[in-house]
Design goal:
Elements lengths: L1 E6 L2 E6 L10 H16 L5 E6 L4 E3 L4 H5 L3 H19 L5 E5 L2 E3 L1 H8 L2 E5 L3 E3 L13 H9 L1 H10 L2 E3 H7 L4 E3 L4 H14 L2 H14 L4 H15 L3 H12 L9
Parallel strand pairs: 2-3, 3-5, 4-6, 5-7, 6-8, 7-10
Antiparallel strand pairs: 1-2, 8-9
Helix pairs in contact: 1-3, 3-4, 4-5, 5-6, 9-10
Length: 256
């Protein structure tokens, strides 16, 4: 249900349950965790792209039929599983790009929001429609949506359960860019290559500084940034980058 393809140093994780619009069953979550762990640990992989199979859905949401028979305790375990995985994506020291190729509803929208940034196809649709079936988001939607688009837009989406198109998602800041469906994965690969050109240590330190400083007072955030700025100066990559700039040549980063 989850496929992994590696192209040079870019890993593409594809949720592959098209008959169910890539809905998140418990077994799919387990397989997704395996692939995420593998790509984060593999030193050859430097950027991860998360997408869905086909042209209809990124991840249409949780598996409603499975949730129907859940006890409150099982629901708690399911929620914590999804939250654990979205946090793993968010805290990955390797950039994770969401290539949103269709419906990203409920848990699908929550997984997209956990990625470091989001590219969408023109046919993509977004929403947190849980209130319409008597539920609330369980994989971080009440927290991350507010951080990405502001409390007003987040409350509108969370409380109405309405679904928005890709252009509206772009307007409110939920996605970074929108492309034709046949250009989406190519554009994700292009930005992945640009990231790969940079020092992997500088990229990972940037992610850490952003995540650790989020929702903290600016003074604390700046202190975190300064500590990583100091730390990067101890690396071989920083010396190589500065030397390459002075010598007007391309740097050769080794991730040390």
């Amino acid at each position: 249900m989850v496929q992994l393809n590696i192209n040079e140093s870019v890993a593409v994780i594809e949720v592959n349950r098209p008959k169910h619009l890539n809905a998140l069953s418990s077994e799919l979550l387990n397989q997704l965790e395996e692939k995420i762990d593998l790509t984060i640990k593999d030193e050859k992989i430097r950027v991860i792209i998360l997408t869905g199979s086909g042209e209809k859905a990124f991840i249409a949401g949780a598996d409603i039929l499975e949730m129907k028979d859940m006890s409150p305790q099982k629901a708690l375990e399911y929620s914590r599983k999804g939250q654990y995985l979205t946090q793993k994506i968010e805290n990955s020291i390797k950039p994770v790009i969401a290539a949103i190729n269709g419906f990203a509803l409920g848990g699908g929208c929550e997984f997209a929001m956990a990625c470091h940034f989001r590219y969408a196809s023109e046919n993509a649709r977004f929403g947190q429609p849980e209130v319409g079936i008597g539920l609330i988001p369980g994989f971080g939607g009440t927290q991350r949506l507010r951080s990405l688009v502001g409390k007003g837009h987040a409350s509108e989406l969370l409380l109405s359960g309405k679904i928005i198109d890709a252009q509206e998602a772009l307007r409110i800041g939920l996605v970074n860019k929108v492309f034709k469906i046949d250009k989406l994965k190519k554009e994700c690969m292009e930005i992945a290559k640009k990231i790969n050109y940079n020092s992997p240590l500088a990229v990972s330190y940037t992610i850490k500084a952003q995540n650790l400083g989020e929702n903290k007072p600016i003074e604390e955030g700046l202190e975190i940034e300064a500590s990583y700025f100091k730390k990067i100066f101890k690396t071989v990559d920083s010396k190589e980058g500065l030397s390459a700039f002075k010598e007007k040549r391309k740097p050769r980063f080794i991730g040390k």
